[in-house]
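Budget justification aside, the reviewers requested a transparent look at the raw inputs and outputs of the sequence design task funded under Objective 1. We therefore reproduce one unedited record. The lines immediately below are the structure tokens for a 131-residue chain.
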């Protein structure tokens, strides 16, 4: 499923079409090896968002591609898939939590029509201190 604003990486972009089969074959041929995104990026000379788009596409096509902080790998072990599903679900929940926090902040800005940090400091003062 395409993500608004990121269609070129989540759709079947030329990079996904070009590299998906090679990545799948590499993962399938070495199922016990976990490969980091950085290594895939270096081998294929692509960016990290393209690696994610390739993995997204392969998973969407039904291939059992797992991921963790250790990298990506192919498996047919239901327990490994469960662990990967839990990992992705936790990440999705965290992203949803941040989106909800931003929604509340937006609503507060609309209601107050003036942004202040939690301690009441003006935005310009905060920016001055940060930058």
């Amino acid at each position: 499923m395409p993500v608004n604003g990121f269609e070129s990486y989540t759709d079947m972009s030329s990079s996904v079409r070009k590299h998906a089969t090679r990545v799948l074959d590499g993962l399938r041929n070495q199922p016990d090896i976990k490969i980091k995104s950085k290594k895939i990026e270096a081998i294929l000379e692509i960016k990290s968002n393209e690696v994610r788009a390739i993995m997204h596409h392969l998973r969407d096509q039904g291939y059992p591609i797992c991921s963790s902080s250790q990298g990506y790998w192919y498996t047919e072990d239901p327990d490994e898939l469960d662990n990967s599903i839990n990992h992705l679900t936790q990440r999705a929940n965290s992203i949803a939590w941040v989106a909800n926090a931003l929604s509340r902040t937006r609503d507060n800005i609309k209601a107050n029509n003036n942004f202040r940090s939690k301690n009441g400091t003006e935005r310009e003062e905060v920016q001055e201190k940060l930058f």
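Residues 1-76 form a domain with the Arc Repressor Mutant, subunit A fold (CATH 1.10.10.10). The chain has a mean pLDDT of 86. Computational costs for records of this kind are itemized in the attached budget.
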